Amino acid sequence: GSTQVPVGPLLRVVDCFSGETLLEVPADSVAEGTRLRVAVRMAAGIPVEAQRLLWGGCALDSGPLPPGLTTNPDAPAVRLLRVEVDWHAALNRVVSVIAFSINKELFDGPFASV
């Protein structure tokens, strides 16, 4: 007869706006953010650099996925937010300029001696 291999929890990725399921994959096969992004690219054709993966109120980075996501069969789906790569890069530059200005004002301005 055929032998069934036990499968761990399935990890599901859904589109942030439509709720459409883009990918369902065994969680242990994509234990890192990088591997999950590649799987999304292969399943949905969305470039890795255009993906922002959100789960549990946080963005998932390229490292190990949170244990609650990979071991809990009832874990909520990962949400995919598609970003325009050029806009994202421009917004990152704006944020870094603003952060630099705020830090400079705090350290060089009226609060420097506090």
Fold and architecture overview:
The protein has three helices and five strands, in the order E-E-H-E-E-H-E-H. With 114 residues, it is α+β, with helices and mostly antiparallel strands. It has a five-stranded mixed beta sheet with strand order 2-1-5-3-4, covered by helices on one side. The relative contact order is 0.17.
Structure, briefly:
With 114 residues, the chain is an alpha+beta fold. Helices cover 36% and strands 21% of the residues.
Compute the gyration radius: what is it?
19 Å
What sort of overall outline do the alpha carbons produce when their principal axes are compared? globular
Order of helices and strands: EEHEEHEH
Largest sheet geometry = 5 strands, mixed
Classify the helix fraction into a percent range.
25-40%
Q: Given the structure, what is the number of helices?
A: 3
Oligomer: single chain
Distance between the termini: 76 Å
Question: What's the number of extended β-strand segments?
Answer: 5
- The low-confidence runs, each spanning 5 or more residues with pLDDT under 50, are none
User: Averaged pLDDT, please?
Assistant: 82
Strand content: 15-25%
Structural classification: alpha+beta
Q: What order do the strands of the largest sheet run in, or round the barrel if closed?
A: 2-1-5-3-4
Tags for this model:
114 residues, alpha+beta, 5-stranded mixed β-sheet, 3 helices, 5 strands, globular
Strand and helix layout:
Blueprint: E1 10-15, E2 21-26, H1 33-44, E3 51-55, E4 58-59, H2 67-71, E5 78-82, H3 85-108
Parallel strand pairs: 1-5
Antiparallel strand pairs: 1-2, 3-4, 3-5
